[in-house]
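Writing this down once: the sequence line spells out the residues, with the fold written below as integer tokens. This is how one looks:
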Amino acid sequence: MGASSAKKKRKSKAKGLKSPEYYSRMAHFYSIRGDFQAAAESLRTAVRVDPSNPKPAADLANLYSMMGDFDEAELFYHKARELGDKSSTTAISLVTVYQIKGRYKEALELIDEIEALNDSEVKTEEIGFARAMCHIKLEKFDEAEAIIASMKKADCNPELIEELEETMKTQKEESEKLSASRAKAKKAVKPAEKAEKAEKAE
């Protein structure tokens, strides 16, 4: 055991706290029971006990993401990365949070970072799916279609491809409806402007 580790454990005991591993185990126990709030509290304690360790922070982020609390999930994914978590798994989880929050440009920037790591932890189809979905939501349909075509050639999961194609179809329809609505509104404004000018001329 290193000097810093021993010092950390003595400090924890002095405050009446146990090891971070203990709180992580308790969090796992509470999660199995379905008590996610208690699990989150245990992991928060683990983060306080061992503030330089990225693992409890990443575990807490994963838990919050599962609970649907994406603000807290983002906060602790960032904390884990700041503490040295360089794993592609944590990064791709943060990409998912960005997508859920509609921050597709940030998601694409992070996807570039993940690809640069060339980490076998994250599957190519996972990256392709995430990137294509961002392009669809940003209405960059040509880019999305190119990625989908590459995924088909690479024999990626057909369910992922189907989800992308369905999402793109829906997004295109919504985009066309919005464009038609704007065009209609613009046409309606012109007669009103002409009538206003005519009244002023009189």
Remarks:
- The chain has a mean pLDDT of 88.
- The CA atoms of residues 74 and 94 lie 6 Å apart.
- The two ends are 93 Å apart (CA to CA).
